[in-house]
Amino acid sequence: MSNIFTKLKYLLFFLLLTHSYLSCSQNFPDLVAGIPVNYDESLVGEYELPDPLILKNGQRVTDTTIWIKQRRPEILEMFQKYQFGKAPCREELSFRIFEEGSAFDGKAIRRQVTLYFTKDTTAHKADLLIYLPSNSKKPVPLFFNISFLPNALTINDPGIRRGMMRNKEGKLISVPDTPPKNGLNVEKFLSEGFGVATIYYQDIEPDFAEGIRYGVRGYFLKPGSTYPAPGEWGAIAAWAWGLSCAMDYLETDRDIDTRKVALFGISRLGKTVLWAGARDSRFGMVIASCSGEGGAALSMRNYGETIAHIMAPSRYFYQFCSNRAQFADDPRTSPIDAHMLISLIAPRPLLLQTGDSDGWSDPKGEFLAAIAAEPVYRLFGKRGLETKVMPDPGEAILHDVGYYMHAGGHGTLPSDYDIFIKFMKKHFIEDGSQFTY
Ligand code: GCU
Q: If phi over 0 gives left and psi between -120 and 50 gives alpha, with beta otherwise, what is residue 289?
C-alpha cells in the first residue's frame, strides 16, 4: 500500500514539475543576444503606423503624381537615413562577357559576365551567371536571384566558372568543387519561357562585421574614416547597390526584357531585394522570401526578431546604417515601418513568401505590413491583398501585392518556386505589367 502512495506522490510531483515548466516556458521568453523574444500575440503591444499617404507637411497624397514627385522621395529618404543608409553613386560600370555556351541539354544559352563595381578592376567584381531559353525569339523576362552561395554552388552545371570566394577570415579561397545536389531549378523557369540569373552577394561585400574591409563599402570610405557615417550604407544597401550595377549590365543585354526582371532573395537577401526594388524602379517585380525584421515585417509589432536583436553588436548591426540603432529601445518612435518599404515598390508587383513556423521572421507582421501598404497600390489602380484575414498555409494571394505562406520554416521549399512562376506569369505575361517612374 505504502508503495502505491509513494508512486502517487512521485506522479504528483512530476505533474507539478511539468506544469510549472510549461507555464514558465510560455511566460518566460527566449533570449537572443540577451534580449527577450516575444512569441505571444497578447503581448505584441499597441502601435500606430505612420500613414504612407500623408506628406511631411500634413497634406494628403491624392494622386500618383504627388506620390511619385513628393511622397515617394520623402519615404525613400527616410529609409536611407534611418534604416539602410545612403549608398554612393555608382562609378561607371565595366563588364566583360567571358563565356557563352549551351547548357541543360541545349535548352539554355549560358552567359557568364564579370561585373567590375569600381574603376579599379583588380578587386570588387562579381560573376553574373545568366541562362536564357535557347528557343526564344524575343527578349525574355528574367528571374534574378541574389544567392547565399557562389554561382557554381547555386546551380548544378559543370560549365560554371568556379572562381574564388572569401572565407570568414577574409582570405580568398577557391570555391569548393562540390556542385549542389538540389540547386536552383533553372529548367523549371526555362520551360515557362523565363531566363534565370544569379549573383553571389558576398562578391559585393562579405557578410560579417569586418567584411567592410574587403567589400565595396570599404572602397568608398572617405579618406581618414574607418566606418561609414551613421546615415551611410550598411551591408544590405551595399548588396542592393550591387544589384543595381547588375541591372546596368542587364540593360545592355538585348536578349533580356529588362522591364520584366523579378528580383528574388531569401532572408537577409529578402531584405536586400526589397531595398533594391524600393530604390531602383527598373526592377519590375520583387519576390522576398522570409525577409522578416528590417524587411517586410512590421518593426513596431513586438513579435519575433526586433530592431534591438538585429542591431545588437554581436549580431547584424553592420547590415544597416548605424542610425537604425536609435529605434532599438522603442521602434514606435521611428518615422518609418515595413509597410512604407513595401509602398516604395508600388505599383510594381511584389510577392511576400513566408513560413508558418518561422516565428522569428514574423509572417503575420509581413501580412499586416502588406495590408497597410494597400492604399498606395490602390492609388495606382492596383490590387493589394484585399483581405484582413491571414490566408492559411499553402493558400496564395497573387494580386499586385501577393502573399504566400508555406507550411514550414525559414527559407524556401521547392514547391514555393511554382508559386513564384505563377506570380511571374500572371503579372509579366497575362497582365503585361511594366512600370517605370
Ligand atoms: C538571422 C537574422 C535575420 C535574417 C536571417 C538570415 O536569423 O536575425 O534577420 O533574416 O538571419 O538572413 O538568414
A: beta
pLDDT single digits (tens) 7-24: 444 444 333 333 333 333
Predicted pLDDT at 90: 86
For the residues 240-251, what does the mean pLDDT come to?
98
CA–CA separation, 161 vs 331, rounded Å? 44
Under 8 Å between Cβ of 358 and 121 = no
d(CA 229, CA 69): 28
Atom of ligand 1 nearest to the CA of 290: 10
pLDDT of residue 26: 37
Question: Which residue CA neighbors atom 13 of ligand 1 most closely?
Answer: 267
Positions marked catalytic: 267, 410
pLDDT for the residue 29? 55
Write the DSSP string, 123-141: SSEEEEEEEEETT-SS-EE
Backbone angles phi, psi at 319, to 5 degrees: -80, -15
Strands (E), 290-414: 350-355, 397-398, 401-406
CA distance 194 to 107: 12
Neighbouring CB atoms inside 10 A of 374's CB total: 23
Q: At 437, is the pLDDT very low, low, confident or very high (cuts 50, 70, 90)?
A: low
Neighbouring residues of 19: CB distance < 8 A, sequence distance ≥ 6: none
Pocket test for ligand 1, best of 37, 147, 267 (most atoms within 8 A of CB): 267
Paired with 101 in beta bridges are 110
Whole-number Å distance, alpha carbon 62 to ligand 1 midpoint, is: 37
